[in-house]
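Reviewers of the previous submission asked for a worked example of the structure-prediction workflow described in the proposal, so we include one complete record here. The input consisted solely of the amino acid sequence. No template or homolog information was supplied to the procedure at any stage.
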Amino acid sequence: MAVLDRLIYRSLAALLSWLALLPRSSASKNAEILVLRHEVAVLRRGNPRPRIGWADRALLAALARILPRALRAHRIVTPATLLRWHQRMVTKKWTQPRAPGRPPLAGELADLIVRLARDNPGWGVVRVQGELRRLGHRIGAGTIRKILRSHRIPPPRVGDDRWRAFLRVHAETILAVDFFHIDCAVSLTRLYVAFVVEHGTRHVRLMGVTRFATAAWAAQLARELTADLA
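From that input alone, the workflow returned the following structure tokens.
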């Protein structure tokens, strides 16, 4: 009796699965067949863990867009894996090759920078850079700052106190404006987002989103922002 019940249950389950295929389009059915065939081919390559090449990733990612949402989670490649592949592809697209580093600074110039900073505690990086330029040495501010940090020479405190006092007085009227970008998951299109942060209240204002961040677009956003802030 148990065997008969099991047979009836499996027959009903198969009949219902066949009925569920009726409203689906032929393109969806063909896509599922192609995915299943490719998954079987991948599984036959290795045991116990199959290896997926770049061609397999491209084919599975393309066919997954045609499959219904309910069938994407029952593949050998989950939607989270497809998203990770996409993020890796976006990172590789926008990764720039490393530029060759600058030649090391001569020891005499490093000693001169340290001597100028120690003999004049009120001088900052810009002042030290200007004095070196007068002596015929053109050295970047970042290089000077790195040398001073390596010798544990702190920056002058007078400028820091003035800047902090300025921020405290004008905190309610300071706006921080910046941009960030985001890449679309389907077309790899890069969108640029402009936003403003009010320094006093930490309130964030979303100004606009565009594919082409031009000077005219940024100027129009600035006009609209000043109109809103009166």
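Strands lie at 175-183, 190-198, 204-210. We consider this example representative of the routine output the project will generate in years two and three.
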